Amino acid sequence: MLKVYKPTTPGRRQTSVVDTSALTKKRPEKSLTIYLRDKAGRNNQGQVTLRHQGGGVKNLYRQIDFRQDKFDIPAKVMALEYDPNRTAWIALIYFKDGEKRYILAPHELKVGDTVISSKNKLEAKPGNRMPLKHIPTAYLVHNIELTPGEGGKIARSAGSGAVLMTIEGGYAQLKLPSGEIRIVSENSLASVGQLSNPDWHLVRWGKAGRMRLRGIRPSVRGKAMNPVDHPHGGGEGHQPIGLVHPKTPWGKTALGVKTRNKKKWSSKFILKRRPDNH
Description:
The protein is mostly beta strands. 4% of the residues lie in helices and 23% in strands. The longest helix has 6 residues, at 208-213. The protein is globular. The mean pLDDT is 92.
């Protein structure tokens, strides 16, 4: 659910935020947080390898359990929390032996619910985790393992979920949020349900300042630069890019160019690529 404020300023007029009233108001679990240094898009030599990164509000990293490898032991959901490092909400769960873990919270999960992870068949309710071969077809799943035992890798952002289409020949067919259809081992673990915070993609950021708080710096158009700085640069006044294809700052063809390696080993697991207009 989104929240819109009274238009007291031009920035406020355009802004919407996600309603977090359903979340538990508490500080993050201290034993499950670590400090990560902000590298601002730079490598170990101080060179910028990823542009438009830097600044932003300092925050602690919450250690999320993507494996959920504590099997056949029920855990109680003690809190639903905001995580500044990802778009979905996270759930703090307590096991009977006192261990605490953070997991990605499905959309319908509530405080007081019980979740369980197992290699055997379980009730297919949101938050339960089991091999794909035990989950009914047409169900939405998230935090899916590409290789059994390595932890969830796909469908981990807000509101996402892959549709389990069928199980055959030891593999499960999944329709991913992008539209791609991919096969993974039927023994790969997945959590049942759509991920929380499904309205995230509807948020209107409203003003540049909110993006700076997220650690995203301005992106300057190539045609606004000088020729020495970008292939699109130069000219008097407003000019088109003047090239057959748009280019990156390093002269490589951009926009619509397929960059995936045609010989990549995992291509055999992709039955249908995502639409080109995605």
